[in-house]
Amino acid sequence: MGKQSIPDVVIRRLPIYLRVLENLSEDFYGNVISSFKLGEKSGVSPAQVRKDLSIIGSFGKQGLGYEIAVLRDELKRILNLDKEIKVGIIGVGNLGHAIARYITQKYATEKDFHLKLVALFDSDPEVLGELINGVPIDLIDTFHAKALELGFRMVVIAVPAEEAQAVMDKCAAAGIEAVLNFAPIHLKAPKEIRVHNTDLSIDLMHLAYYL
Amino acid sequence: MGKQSIPDVVIRRLPIYLRVLENLSEDFYGNVISSFKLGEKSGVSPAQVRKDLSIIGSFGKQGLGYEIAVLRDELKRILNLDKEIKVGIIGVGNLGHAIARYITQKYATEKDFHLKLVALFDSDPEVLGELINGVPIDLIDTFHAKALELGFRMVVIAVPAEEAQAVMDKCAAAGIEAVLNFAPIHLKAPKEIRVHNTDLSIDLMHLAYYL
Question: Which residue of B has its CA nearest to A195?
């Protein structure tokens, strides 16, 4: 099946399956995992696991399950995680700092984490040159040049709401292809850029409904 | 329509609409907003806006739109945001710190932000008593007693994966009703607890598919 035809809700679950596989002790499970076990550890029903994996073309062996190494490699390939992916962060306040530390620490400590932080940007000249786990903070004015020089195409936006659209416009101009937006605002972007939003206030307000 | 019968995908969009309404300049828009304008600012189609709002029982006036103040109050009531909601955070590393600062700053500066951080917990005795914007860090051992004393029912989990299930079990024992989990692991919880997961690695791996 072509990449374009995998539904996004299925894509969303693939990294969850991948993480489960990467954290397995292979000694314990042998070299196969059942859809039941994979589902249990992923928070997904076994039927959904089988359906998702058949969509990407992976089929378990009747009564045995999925070969762990094969499935892991296949998931990585589909998610483009069989190669290193460079990431930049724009906005290095509290949140940007926390994200930068998280990515760099995961990259340094987990052999299967393929996202590498290569650049940090902020509008405040006072933090220029400061390092976060070895990655220097550049001024946002240099974003376009740095994106081309370093070759990253994925960006995390962690600036205040009122600065976020201008930052998104810079991303569009520099050929960025994927954006994870933490700014609490809906951003307009050309359709060539895939934008996902993650928003703590919205998450909390959503949960409040269930109190 | 009873609360139980509103689909979660609709509930998810209500805080987004609410945020748009709270950020509107009423002078500019008068006291009504069209489904087109509300949709544009929310990143949702006008038809979806009308459908969502009709599900919660709010109907715009033909050719005019929705009364802003009425709709805002209605959304707050449905989301339980017409009263203050107390929140606790478990795990005060980089991420927990950033979340704590975010919630306290938003609460202090935005009149319509109803989530109040009342407690912080960590397993490290070294940070005991430290304050984040006035909220002290307690030892996780005191969680049960503090939850009852302070009366919070919503918790953010920001501990490492290997500690998260034990923390969730403490939440269940203390009668917590809603959990936002940042730990990169699927947690088992009794069905009385609503658990939402938010996971930076999964978000980034998901986006990598689109590069």
Answer: B207
